[in-house]
Input
Amino acid sequence: MGIISATAIAAALNFPGLPSGMIGNEIATRFGRRRVVTTIMGLSAVIGVPVSLSRSLHNVAVVALLALYAVTIIGKSPSVTTSTVLAAPTERKGAAMAMGPVALFTLAKGRLR
Output
């Protein structure tokens, strides 16, 4: 069998995040976007600290922390996009929706250099 690659682990960590985005958006619709997004972002920050300090932990523990982190990171994204589109003027809603990915990919590209 062999060792599982880091790429395969990273890809697998995206799967629990997908339903968390849909669930997070539904919760945000019911309880208020600002409150829910702020809570999810706070949880993400709290989970991010042990992730950043997890170098000495067993690989299974690191992957478990990363799974929780992925859920919180992806859990807020649909709510943020929805809020952006709702706040945009009618004639600019499409552009507002497109700017999120453009900004993220631009920032990611800058970090990879």
